[in-house]
Amino acid sequence: GNSVTQMEGPVTLSEEAFLTINCTYTATGYPSLFWYVQYPGEGLQLLLKATKADDKGSNKGFEATYRKETTSFHLEKGSVQVSDSAVYFCALSDESGGGTSYGKLTFGQGTILTVHP
Amino acid sequence: DAGVTQSPTHLIKTRGQQVTLRCSPKSGHDTVSWYQQALGQGPQFIFQYYEEEERQRGNFPDRFSGHQFPNYSSELNVNALLLGDSALYLCASSWRTGLNTEAFFGQGTRLTVV
């Protein structure tokens, strides 16, 4: 079945540091890939997505590239802020390339990011 | 637009009891999915409802059941509660027939089984 593996956490950084959160996946077919963010006390919010190989998703300074050859979708940000402190989830959807996320989402275990001033 | 709303926000139940959680989807959305998020884990897909029918189901026992109403709102029912059912239950809504539509999540219901 489908699965998503995220780097072991938590991650603690100083403000303006570079962020990488690793994500690898196992799936049949051609899944769409997502990063969701969960701020304290809130629900999940879609951060960015990519629907096919070599696509780059980006939002709010965050980026991730869909790498089919390495089955990866690593999240990066060049300069983190205190307001980026949250839990980040990598996820895949088993729709084939449509980019919709209405179907079953398979999530990784989440990575807690804490950014200090 | 109120977004996805879930009720209640918190509740405490005793082992063996039954519980019903409720979800109102975002305006314009017709599909509701339910997820269970145990502490420190990622959400796990329970099932999805569209046109008042269960369309997909994850690896959860029959104690977990649901319903979708004509106004697209949904309920999640859990019977014979176990301590292991303690978790955050998330509802997500989307527009099934739309292309590239995002699934919006509610803030969840925190269920504690004692």
Task: Outline the secondary-structure elements.
The complex is a heterodimer of chains A (about 120) and B (about 110).
Chain A: E1 3-6, E2 11-14, E3 19-21, E4 23-26, E5 32-38, E6 44-50, E7 56-59, E8 62-65, E9 75-77, E10 86-93, E11 105-107, E12 111-116
Parallel strand pairs in A: 2-12
Antiparallel strand pairs in A: 1-4, 3-9, 5-6, 5-10, 7-8, 8-9, 10-11, 10-12
Chain B: E1 5-7, E2 10-13, E3 19-24, E4 31-37, E5 44-50, E6 53-57, E7 64-68, E8 74-78, E9 87-94, E10 104-105, E11 109-113
Parallel strand pairs in B: 2-11
Antiparallel strand pairs in B: 1-3, 3-8, 4-5, 4-9, 5-6, 7-8, 9-10, 9-11
Report on this model:
The complex is a heterodimer of chains A (117) and B (114). By secondary structure, chain A is mainly β. Chain A is built from no helices and 12 strands. Chain A has strands at 3-6, 11-14, 19-21, 23-26, 32-38, 44-50, 56-59, 62-65, 75-77, 86-93, 105-107, 111-116. Chain A starts with a strand and ends with a strand. The model of chain A is unreliable at 96-101 (pLDDT under 50). Chain B has 114 residues and is mostly beta strands. Chain B is built from no helices and 11 strands. In chain B, strands 2, 4, 5, 6, 9, 10 and 11 form a 7-stranded mixed beta sheet that branches. In chain B, strand 4 and strand 5 form a beta hairpin. Chain B starts with a strand and ends with a strand. In chain B, 39% of the residues are buried.
Quick overview:
The complex is a heterodimer of chains A (117) and B (114). Helices cover 0% and strands 49% of the residues of chain A.
Rg of chain A, Cα atoms, Å: 13 Å
Structural class by secondary-structure content of chain B:
mainly beta
Total of DSSP H or I helical runs spanning 4+ residues of chain A: 0
Largest interface, counted with CB-CB under 8 A?
Answer: A-B, 24 and 28 residues
Distance between the termini of chain A: 41 Å
Shape of chain A: globular
Largest sheet of chain A, in brief, is:
6 strands, mixed
Q: What's the β-strand tally of chain A?
A: 12
Q: Which regions of chain A are unreliable across 5 or more consecutive residues at pLDDT < 50?
A: 96-101
Mean pLDDT of chain B: 93
Task: Report the portion of residues of chain B in β strands.
Answer: over 45%
Helix proportion range of chain A: under 10%
DSSP summary: helix tally of chain B: 0
Q: Could you tell me the strand content of chain A as a percent range?
A: over 45%
Element pattern of chain A in H and E: EEEEEEEEEEEE
The proportion of residues forming helix of chain B, as a percent range, comes to under 10%
Order of helices and strands of chain B: EEEEEEEEEEE
- Mean pLDDT level of chain A: 90
Structural class of chain A: mainly beta
